[in-house]
């Protein structure tokens, strides 16, 4: 079985630390990296057909922007280190979607950065890192 790390990347400083950690580990273990970028999405079933068509168009634009602004530059960074890399960009609930990506790609580990936010919303609703620590289908490393 090949070792594969799925790294949650959103362009934040926390995700940059997670990717750096994953690159280091992958280099030591001959692993590959999957850069995963998840965009939140809700279906809004009450929209008119015209509004849905416009939203679908914006969705395509957002996916392309995520690819060129986040995924492609990070993939180049990983490839420049001599590591095999793939990218996955999806819409959905972030923690659940990352778990799906880990399962689908046969990942041996999920890596995510912790932002350090301790605000009320995080305490009430939880963080992505905290949720992954509870539901991840593979070991999850949370990088401070």
Describe, in plain words, how this protein is organized in 3D.
With 144 residues, the protein is of the alpha/beta class. The protein has a single domain, classed as Rossmann fold, CATH 3.40.50.620. Helix content is 52%, strand content 20%. It has helices at residues 13-29, 49-80, 94-105, 120-125, 128-135, and strands at residues 4-8, 32-39, 85-91, 109-113, 140-143. It has a five-stranded parallel beta sheet, sandwiched between helices. Helix 3 crosses helix 5 (128-135). The longest helix is centred in the middle third of the chain and has 32 residues, at 49-80. It is globular. The two termini are 28 Å apart.
Question: Nutshell version of this structure?
Answer:
With 144 residues, the protein is α/β, with parallel strands linked by helices. Helix content is 52%, strand content 20%. It has one domain (4-143): Rossmann fold (3-Layer(aba) Sandwich).
